[in-house]
Amino acid sequence: MGGHPGEVRAPEHWLTDVERERAARFRFEADRETFVAAHLLVRLCAAAALGDGADPAALTLLQICDVHGPGHGRPYLEQAPELGVSLSHTRGYVCAAAGPGRVGVDAEHVPPGSLDEALAERVLTPRERAEVTGNDELMRRWTRKEALIKRGELSLDRLDRGGDDLDGRHLLEWTAGPDIRVAVVTDLPARRVPIPHLG
């Protein structure tokens, strides 16, 4: 699922205290709204994946990181820890994915202009760097890698050594508007579904 933050019409009281605290720290209201929308959207997405009338309001999204504590790290649902969930937000766009096994999603804006050489050097292997000539392809590769990171299969400190090998995984990609690239990596085939409207 993905779209403009304003398309996610769900009540903020679904959020945990940790999520509300993190949302309150944003300096700009647009950033806060995007964060909140992504965290609500992942519940809608998970409820759709769970089926059988699963109530998104009853789903508690948790994140635990050994380094940064609660509210950071790979997300999971308290009520369905076996269901993989992932979320991403970038200026003006939010997306979420849910499904059996590990799931990773990322959305990024494609920078205007010529190839961002500094980013390309940091995130691409030498082979990939030789193949990538523009920012659109750079961000396509980057969103794939970020989705793999969110699945726990790649780390930021190994980006220039680890490619976006998808053997044994499934990839779903799309563009949103003129400059947003989205990648979802899952264990099983995935499909894009619209944001549900509550009602």
From TrEMBL:
Segments spanning the bilayer are none
Q: Which residues belong to any copy of the 4'-phosphopantetheinyl transferase domain?
A: 102-151
Annotated Gene Ontology cellular components are: cytosol
The alphabetized list of GO BP terms reads: lysine biosynthetic process via aminoadipic acid
Q: Name one Pfam family in it.
A: ACPS
Molecular functions (GO terms): holo-[acyl-carrier-protein] synthase activity; magnesium ion binding
Q: Which UniProt keywords apply?
A: Transferase
Q: What is the name of this protein?
A: 4'-phosphopantetheinyl transferase
- Give yes or no: UniProt keyword Transferase: yes
The question of whether Transferase is a record keyword is answered with: yes
**Entries under InterPro entries matching the protein:** 4-PPantetheinyl_Trfase_dom (IPR008278), 4-PPantetheinyl_Trfase_dom_sf (IPR037143), P-Pant_transferase_sf (IPR050559)
Source organism of the structure: Nonomuraea wenchangensis
Belongs to which family?
Belongs to the P-Pant transferase superfamily. Gsp/Sfp/HetI/AcpT family.
